[in-house]
User: Which sequence fits this backbone?
């Protein structure tokens, strides 16, 4: 934990915390986080969601937004498309700045929120805890690959942040640790494992892939899907029943044990998936 100039939590979690306030910031650049042909509304949905998801991963509630945007000449930007994604999450856009760019669209969003009764962190997982995903993952990667192959599909930009679950976990304190899935389950689970000093084990037999239509190893495919904005969190065994009653859509996918690293437990043995994730490039 960092205590620097009134900052309770700084670098190393999904958002910074000072006093009762949570702050998250993301930058997205054309060619890295979205394609040139992606609709502007979809791009705005994605970056606002990424920031709101960071606040949710801390158990907080997003309230205010700031926007910085650099727009290339000839790019069609609709003011309504800027505001809509903020309104969707009940976030008030309170300021920002716009400028021009030579050839690429650049968007930066800051979300300011308030903490709940409990602040969720990447540290806090303990041996014996159970690992949950807020929803199945992998569909974002499936749709992204279709887009990169030339398909006119952008629905993966419209994935929603888990605001209700984040609020629930922040109010109840049922999660011992939490992170949002932006870099892939394996890589994001490794952040919890490192910060908590534990080993995270994902059970292949529990990991949902029935919703996917991919050839080959569907589990490994899903583990490498990024920008899902699902919540990956741990729960003490004594709290499993309450969690599953309050959040019935959450999916149990593994367990925590002593040690280090992140592993996929398969019939033929364990596979290290600590680096299994998504590279941000379009």
Assistant:
């Amino acid at each position: 934990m960092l205590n620097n100039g009134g900052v309770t939590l700084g670098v190393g979690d999904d958002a910074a915390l000072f006093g009762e306030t949570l702050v998250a910031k993301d930058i997205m650049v054309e060619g890295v986080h979205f394609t040139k042909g992606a609709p502007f509304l979809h791009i705005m949905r994605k970056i606002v969601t990424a920031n709101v998801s960071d606040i949710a991963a801390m158990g907080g509630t997003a309230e205010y937004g700031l926007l910085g945007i650099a727009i290339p000449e000839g790019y069609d930007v609709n003011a309504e498309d800027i505001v809509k994604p903020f309104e969707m999450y009940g976030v008030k856009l309170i300021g920002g700045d716009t400028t021009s760019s030579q050839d690429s669209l650049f968007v930066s969003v800051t979300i300011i929120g308030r903490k709940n009764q409990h602040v969720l962190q990447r540290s806090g997982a303990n041996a014996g805890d159970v690992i949950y995903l807020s929803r199945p993952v992998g569909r974002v990667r499936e749709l992204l690959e279709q887009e990169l192959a030339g398909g006119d599909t952008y629905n993966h930009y419209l994935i929603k942040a888990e605001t209700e679950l984040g609020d629930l976990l922040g109010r109840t304190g049922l999660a011992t640790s939490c992170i949002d899935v932006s870099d892939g389950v394996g890589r994001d689970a490794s952040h919890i494992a490192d910060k908590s000093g534990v080993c995270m084990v994902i059970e292949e037999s529990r990991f949902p892939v029935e919703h996917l239509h991919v050839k080959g190893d569907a589990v490994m495919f899903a583990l490498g899907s990024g920008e899902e904005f699902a919540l990956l969190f741990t729960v003490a065994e004594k709290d499993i029943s309450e969690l599953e009653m309050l959040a019935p859509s959450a999916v149990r996918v593994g367990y925590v044990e002593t040690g280090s690293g992140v592993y996929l437990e398969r019939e033929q043995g364990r596979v290290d998936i600590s680096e299994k994730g998504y590279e941000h490039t379009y």
